[in-house]
């Protein structure tokens, strides 16, 4: 990380804040390695609040100039025009991802809007805030393909895909995640959007111990797989993803579609394409969803991969 590159960072977020809609958005994605000297820095706009994240420890000079620049940014015309209220600096590299409020008074539980849908975030207490912004176009795709569908949402986290599916006219969504606290937040997200909770199920189960129950509620017209790269004691990407793929033919309806995702720079699209050929050869790769333009990466195979398969 280079202190001399910080003016580029501030110029870019100034430009982006003037252009983004009144929705939640990433303003700066240094992790795409398109910004030399700023590879471990990101910045998200949460409709009034700015979350700046460092993914690697920096020297005192970089830290001091970053904080001074953020304080100055909070006096800028664009900050005032967009009704900015607070800036949070998160140290993602440190244990517990500690955060410090640099400007203003933080609203730690803001409700934000993405593609017209509401989501409750949780700032300053966890590494992740409750919505992965790089999956915006994935949620848009689900909304566009969920009409009258029976949907299975594996590794559902806070149910962003589920919210999009119900908004898109799904008949039912079954969300499965081991973290019941995340599912509770997912229930809140549906309630924020005034959805009929009778259409949504929240199962706090270990997927690999629940195939019988999952199968009984099928077949599914749309299956979404969006696991973490690694979750201690429950999921390891290269070992466990194939166990899910081999189950798909029995879970999927005749004209069903699978959205399979992976967000690890350690594997390419071939990890999913070849895995599907081996484990469920009757499901064919159709296309890869584009990532939001603000998530540009010097190597697209290192960025989020969301692939569509069907019979």
TrEMBL record:
<feature type="domain" description="S-adenosylmethionine-dependent methyltransferase">
    <location>
        <begin position="25"/>
        <end position="309"/>
    </location>
</feature>
<keyword id="KW-0808">Transferase</keyword>
<keyword id="KW-0489">Methyltransferase</keyword>
<dbReference type="InterPro" id="IPR029063">
    <property type="entry name" value="SAM-dependent_MTases_sf"/>
</dbReference>
<dbReference type="InterPro" id="IPR019614">
    <property type="entry name" value="SAM-dep_methyl-trfase"/>
</dbReference>
<keyword id="KW-0698">rRNA processing</keyword>
<dbReference type="GO" id="GO:0032259">
    <property type="term" value="P:methylation"/>
</dbReference>
<dbReference type="GO" id="GO:0006364">
    <property type="term" value="P:rRNA processing"/>
</dbReference>
<keyword id="KW-0949">S-adenosyl-L-methionine</keyword>
<dbReference type="Pfam" id="PF10672">
    <property type="entry name" value="Methyltrans_SAM"/>
</dbReference>
<dbReference type="GO" id="GO:0008168">
    <property type="term" value="F:methyltransferase activity"/>
</dbReference>
<protein>
    <submittedName>
        <fullName>Methyltransferase domain-containing protein</fullName>
    </submittedName>
</protein>
């Amino acid at each position: 990380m280079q202190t001399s590159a910080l003016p580029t960072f501030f110029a870019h977020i100034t430009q982006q804040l003037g252009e983004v809609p009144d929705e939640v958005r990433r303003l700066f994605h240094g992790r795409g390695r398109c910004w030399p000297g700023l590879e471990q820095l990101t910045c998200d706009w949460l409709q009034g609040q700015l979350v700046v994240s460092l993914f690697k420890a920096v020297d005192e000079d970089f830290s001091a100039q970053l904080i001074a620049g953020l304080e100055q940014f909070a006096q800028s015309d664009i900050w005032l025009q967009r009704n900015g209220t607070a800036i949070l600096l998160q140290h993602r590299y440190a244990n517990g991802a500690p955060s410090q409020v640099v400007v203003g008074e933080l609203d730690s539980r803001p409700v934000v809007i993405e593609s017209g849908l509401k989501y409750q975030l949780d700032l300053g207490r966890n590494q992740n805030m409750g919505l992965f912004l790089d999956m915006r176009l994935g949620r848009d795709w689900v909304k566009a393909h969920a009409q009258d569908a029976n949907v299975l949402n594996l590794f559902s986290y806070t149910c962003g895909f589920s919210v999009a599916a119900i908004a898109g006219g799904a008949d039912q969504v079954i969300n499965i995640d081991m973290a019941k606290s995340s599912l509770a937040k997912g229930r809140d997200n549906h309630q924020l959007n005034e959805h009929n909770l009778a259409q949504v199920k929240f199962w706090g189960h270990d997927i690999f111990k629940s195939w019988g129950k999952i199968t009984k509620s099928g077949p599914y017209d749309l299956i979404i797989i969006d696991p973490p790269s690694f979750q201690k004691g429950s999921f390891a990407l290269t070992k466990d993803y194939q166990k899910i793929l081999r189950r798909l033919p029995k879970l999927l309806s005749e004209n069903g579609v699978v959205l399979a995702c992976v967000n690890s720079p350690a594997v390419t699209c071939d990890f999913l394409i070849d895995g599907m050929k081996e484990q469920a050869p009757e499901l064919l790769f159709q296309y890869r969803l584009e990532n939001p333009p603000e998530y540009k990466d010097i190597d697209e195979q290192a960025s989020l991969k969301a692939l569509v398969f069907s019979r």
